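Trying the structure run again after the queue cleared.
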Amino acid sequence: MGKDTKGFFRRKWFLRIISLILALFLFMYVNGSKSGFLRQNTRNNNQNSALMSNKSVTLRMPLDVTIDNNKYIVSGYPQYVKVKVTGPSALVTTTSNTQNFKVYADLSDLTPGKHRVKLKTSGLNSELTSKIEPQYINVNIQQRKTITMKVTIRLSTRDLDDGYKLGHPHSDIQTVQVTGSRDEVNKVNRIVAFVAIPHDAKDNIARQVTLQAIDRNGQTLNVVISPTTTNVSIPISAGSQSSSSSDSSSSSSDESEETKSSSRTSLRNDSSDSSSETSQSSSSISNEDSSSSSRNQ
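Done. Tokens:
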């Protein structure tokens, strides 16, 4: 029995079958490994292609203006501009997230007046390209001027209900500095702290008020005021003096009326007495005439 089994395994057809099966397994293993390697390579190549492909993104960036701020004031330029950034996808994404570059207008070599200036970028990666919108801006450069002015308090009303009256308002800031272009600062007529007073106010009022620069026509000017606000206090008191004065005036009026009435009564009495005396005189004269006529007879 053992000899037959050993002879069976030694037969040629059996060995051929085993060899064929092993060859098939080896073939399948090698093909599987190649397919996996190819898939991995394809995936890596796709990722590399995605990273290296170009991409564009539009960013909203603040505009920096380069000038001597101690000497000049610049107006007319936008606060933000749009920048279209194009380049490798990875760099564009990083730039979009960090925004680690700036857009600026160099005015350092310009004199006072109106100018048209081209915008530039700084700090952008060399592999990226940018397009700024707008590419040019119009600016107005003017001499800077600073003056000191007093603060004026203006109240919305001076009449209160129920006999209450306003006292003298007080500001914790007496003077402020006004800075701006020379033309605009020269137009400033006064610095006003405007306080709205309700008609039914009965207690002292305290307000923090924003200061305004006003010209001769009452128009607000575009200047910088430092400090920008002031604390205003306004005392309110009951109008006892006005009540007493009105009582006094009414008393005087009553006394005047009484005096006039007395005068009219006295005049009427005097005229009555005069009339009585006149009638008595007439009566005596009549009596004397009648006596005289009877004696003559």
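DSSP finds five helices and 17 strands in the chain. Worth checking whether this holds up in the mutant runs.
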